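Much of what follows relies on a compact textual record of a protein's fold. Think of the row as the fold of the chain written in a discrete alphabet. An example makes this concrete, so a full record is given next.


***
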Amino acid sequence: MGYNNKYLSHDEICAIYKCLNGHIHVKYRTLDITMEPEEFLQVAQVFTDALRILQRKEDSKNEEISIADISVMQKV
């Protein structure tokens, strides 16, 4: 298996790169998953969807509630 020195993306513990055989590699720590480009597109879509969901949950946690925005019915 040949390695292309040009990574598509990388950080301290993970990387995505394309080998000379045309496979996309997703490397996390010691795990290196090899896939066809079509498979990588599916995996990338799943990660993107998960990130959107996590971001929405995180945004709702950080949302501040203003007392002025709360509709309160007065009881007499």
